[in-house]
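Homework help board

Subject: predicted structure for assignment chain

Our instructor gave us this sequence and asked us to write out the predicted structure in token form, then describe one feature. I got the tokens but I'm not sure how to describe them. Can anyone check?
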Amino acid sequence: MRFEIPEEKTLVYEMVLPMRWGDMDAMGHINNVSYFRYLETCRIDWMIKQNMPANPHGDGMVIVNAFCNFYKELVYPGNILMKMYVSNIGEKTCDTWCTLEREDQLGTIYAAGGATLIWVDFLQKKAKPFPLEVVKLLKEN
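My token output:
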């Protein structure tokens, strides 16, 4: 099954992350699990920079699904340019998307992934509507 990144989306964040030698597997390319770590790193870094870190004693965003499409092998060494987008902003959820390119081969998408985020009250273990300031951040970017 392949999930396609929608045409209608808003670029909200970019970051560069170095591939690590330990991210490779026995086949000599970056292991599939590492892609999910890269996507997580980008998503969490974006949330922190937007002042939306998860608070285990309060509320915050968590993922309810995640996927990654692998188009071309990433091979160490190099840096990855990740571009993160949001779409489908609802009352309690939004979709995030991320593309991965080598910094030395811009324009070539090596992988693309995404996650649906939901706003949660961690103490009550329940979804709740996004705070107004979060909706504003999501829609203004």
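Reply (TA_rk): Your tokens look well-formed. For the description, you could write something like this. The helical segments are 32-49, 132-140. That's the kind of observation they're looking for.
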